[in-house]
Amino acid sequence: MIYVIATTPMKPENRDDFIRGHKACTVETRKEKGCLSYDGHVSVNDPNLYVVVERWETRDDLNAHARAPHMRVWRDYSAQMKTAPTVIEIISDGKVEKI
């Protein structure tokens, strides 16, 4: 099993649009092969930090997710709503990969 934690700092003025847009992305992601769970949350410590927690059956499923058409749309849509790039941590086999 693959776990992913993705954290994105949002621009305060775009927070609601960012969250609304991610909800649409979530609906499509949950339909993908190998997606066990995919949920977005606003950080309890920072109202402008969005945290996505994911579980995938395999690394191949996760890699396919990264190439999915709706993810391309999401990346384009959300790009101007961030204060910094998303930090992605991939956890598998007792190792953490940060990208």
From TrEMBL:
<dbReference type="InterPro" id="IPR007138">
    <property type="entry name" value="ABM_dom"/>
</dbReference>
<feature type="domain" description="ABM">
    <location>
        <begin position="2"/>
        <end position="90"/>
    </location>
</feature>
<keyword id="KW-0503">Monooxygenase</keyword>
<dbReference type="InterPro" id="IPR011008">
    <property type="entry name" value="Dimeric_a/b-barrel"/>
</dbReference>
<dbReference type="GO" id="GO:0004497">
    <property type="term" value="F:monooxygenase activity"/>
</dbReference>
<dbReference type="InterPro" id="IPR050744">
    <property type="entry name" value="AI-2_Isomerase_LsrG"/>
</dbReference>
<dbReference type="Pfam" id="PF03992">
    <property type="entry name" value="ABM"/>
</dbReference>
<keyword id="KW-0560">Oxidoreductase</keyword>
<protein>
    <submittedName>
        <fullName>Antibiotic biosynthesis monooxygenase</fullName>
    </submittedName>
</protein>
